[in-house]
Amino acid sequence: MEYDISKRKAQILRAVVEAYVKGGEPVGSKYIAQNMMPNCSPATIRNEMAELEVLGYLEQPHTSAGRVPSELGYRFYVDCLAGEYKKTKAETEVMAERLRGKQHELDKILAEASRLAGSMTNYTAIAVKPRTDMSKIIRFEVMYFDSRNLVLVMLSGSGNAKTRNLRLSFDVLPTDAAHLASTLNMYIAGHTLDEITLPLMMQAEAEMGSEARLLSAAMKEIYSGMEEQSGGEIKVDGVDRLLSYPEFSDVGKLRGLLGAIESKDGILDTISNIDGDELSVVIGRENMSDSMSDSTLVVKKIKKDGKVVGAIGIIGPCRMDYANVMATVDALAESVGKMINSELRMLEGPKKGKE
Amino acid sequence: MEYDISKRKAQILRAVVEAYVKGGEPVGSKYIAQNMMPNCSPATIRNEMAELEVLGYLEQPHTSAGRVPSELGYRFYVDCLAGEYKKTKAETEVMAERLRGKQHELDKILAEASRLAGSMTNYTAIAVKPRTDMSKIIRFEVMYFDSRNLVLVMLSGSGNAKTRNLRLSFDVLPTDAAHLASTLNMYIAGHTLDEITLPLMMQAEAEMGSEARLLSAAMKEIYSGMEEQSGGEIKVDGVDRLLSYPEFSDVGKLRGLLGAIESKDGILDTISNIDGDELSVVIGRENMSDSMSDSTLVVKKIKKDGKVVGAIGIIGPCRMDYANVMATVDALAESVGKMINSELRMLEGPKKGKE
DNA sequence: TTTAGCACTCTTTTAAGTCGAGTGCTAACC
DNA sequence: GGTTAGCACTCGACTTAAAAGAGTGCTAAA
């Protein structure tokens, strides 16, 4: 965290990063001297840049080209930025406003927020929804649709509900549905998959009496419902935007990144490896996945009641407009956080209005 | 449908398509004469090809390059193929097998089938799930989670269920949940959004008595649930595979296509414009969306009980291995169809075993 | 410590020239 | 008439050479 660098070096480094991010081409001493640091001569800048290079903050694509920030250079830049990337209050308000409306389901809010982040920054956005736990169902409900179709509703301990259609090959009555529900609640609810033993099943079957076949049809769906992990998903928005950056005009690089985005594992890994709750920036090879080693990921987790319920982020080339991206992701994540937590407050009525 | 073309022309056209699909480079008369039609001289082929060009089946990137099929050329080829692209029974069986296991939810089956299609053909796969209709809710259920959290289950006329979490700012009892459910079923169920008038609401509120606030909390969720069209979704798999085809090494073309895939509207339009239920191949500009005018879409709808419940398909460049893609998509769609319809049969037990 | 000057390096651009694949056409052939 | 051989011609792809330009590193002076 402690970078041992003279003030002027830092200033030059910063200038290089910003110029390079903006222009996309290696930046030379002359440019810096003229545009960003008018009180230094090119030669001075050159000397400093040469030193920054041996320190590892800058790189030279080849002799007689300008300098380009190394990953370390970006890292330094980002760390310096840490304090000052916030959006203004007004901007934040605008974003929050655009998020309103859709404030119903968490998935939707996350997706919308990430989409917004993508379009505001012109990079690819991701929304992460963590796995929801269905390993223990605490309550069942059975709805009667018609004599051959029931709907099975399963409620997990964490409050997630999942529904399954039960299509039968025999006729049942509404009372059978109710009977099934009460049987399930009595014998199956509250158990994990492992705990549902044969004796338990037999008891349940006995309870169902003549409608045991209804139970077995239901159990089949329950098994599959409990086994499958819904969630752990990433929604991606705006892959096409990647193509507007020259670093991805090389099909090879693009392909790797696209693959990584699609497989999702690497990204999930990276995100789950992030410690704090703060905005985090993963630059180049800091990423777990090799195919993302030319890209940067900016993410922020979103918490509800102290628990991580998702994350939104931006993926782009290392040469990225960090200030803007960081400010946007941070503000949006913040907004989402407030929004999903304020549902409480809103309903609770006036209460230490914190705003 | 009636192409007025000599047998030999058709043969040459076919040869050109196949050679071009395989090699990716304009194919010349000599190549055809040597490899595909040994009993003709290059000159003859040349003459024929020149005629095929004025007829619009072939194109020439520039003088002194070989010929390339035009869209019409591909169309002809595909139409000719109509009969003979089927997979063998054994292959079909293998695919069906790989689909088994996941046979629970339609979404999953579709997604899995399309993923399989993509990996078998090395193109980008899509799975389409049509809009599910929630405009009229025929039945409500309310599950009691804890004193401040309920789960609201809504069942539409078409049998789709949707759940919403109801987070309250006041405490309720399990009996309140039941009461809410019966009130909703009495006053709200069976109506569309428009039909829920103020008087109706007031009646319902009166019915709820002191727990009217519970009703209003629920109504908020119901409104949002009914308004939102879930579904109409496209799941895409394997965009990165597009990059392995030289036609998309041009970033511009790729960008358009990626955009189209992402916005999804164009694709949905195209698909919903397809008339029959058969496998259909939409080549180049036959697509609705401009940005897909260099791509081909191969889709097949999937029906259940005579109703379209989804579709799977493949997107790739016009220069596509049509025979393989068509066979794969067709067979997979077929398998999925059988699978979701056989759930019935399986449960019904032995019955005119059709296989 | 900073700066001006200058030779040097290395990419990018431009131009010219060559190569080769494939065509279209004409004339001979069956 | 349909088919084939031969040949001139076209046009992109590739190669090579040269010129241009940008930026550096180093030296020496301020």
Q: What do you see in this structure?
A:
Chain A has helices at 7-23, 29-36, 42-55, 71-81, 89-99, 106-121, 174-188, 198-208, 212-227, 239-242, 251-263, 265-272, 322-348, and strands spanning 58-59, 68-69, 124-129, 137-146, 149-156, 161-167, 233-237, 280-283, 295-304, 307-317. Chain A is of the alpha+beta class and 355 residues long. In chain A, strand 4 and strand 5 form a beta hairpin. In chain A, helix 6 (106-121) runs antiparallel to helix 13. The two termini of chain A are 33 Å apart. The A-B interface holds A 104-105, 139, 141, 143-145, 149, 151, 153, 155, 159, 161-165, 167-169, 217, 221, 224-225, 228, 237-240, 243-244, 248-249, 251, 254-255, 258-259, 262, 343-344, 347-349 and B 104-105, 108, 139, 141, 143-145, 149, 151, 153, 155, 159, 161-165, 167-169, 217, 221, 224-225, 228, 237-240, 243-244, 248-249, 251, 254-255, 258-259, 262, 343-344, 347-349. The first copy, chain A, binds a DNA duplex (30 and 30 nucleotides) through residues 26, 28-30, 40-44, 46-47, 49-50, 60-66.
Strands of chain A, count: 10
**What is the C-alpha radius of gyration of chain A, as a whole number of Å?**
27 Å
In quaternary terms, these chains amount to homodimer
Largest interface: A-B, 44 and 45 residues
Let me know the largest β-sheet of chain A: 5 strands, antiparallel
Strand-pairing-aware structural class of chain A: alpha+beta
Distance between the termini of chain A: 33 Å
Share of β-strand residues of chain A: 15-25%
What is the string of helix and strand elements of chain A? Answer: HHHEEHHHEEEEHHHEHHHEEEH
Number of helical stretches of at least 4 residues of chain A: 13
The gross shape of chain A turns out to be elongated
Spatial ordering of strands, largest sheet of chain A: 7-3-10-9-8
Helix content of chain A: 40-55%
Could you report the average pLDDT of chain A, rounded to the nearest whole number?
Answer: 87
Low-confidence stretches of chain A: 344-355
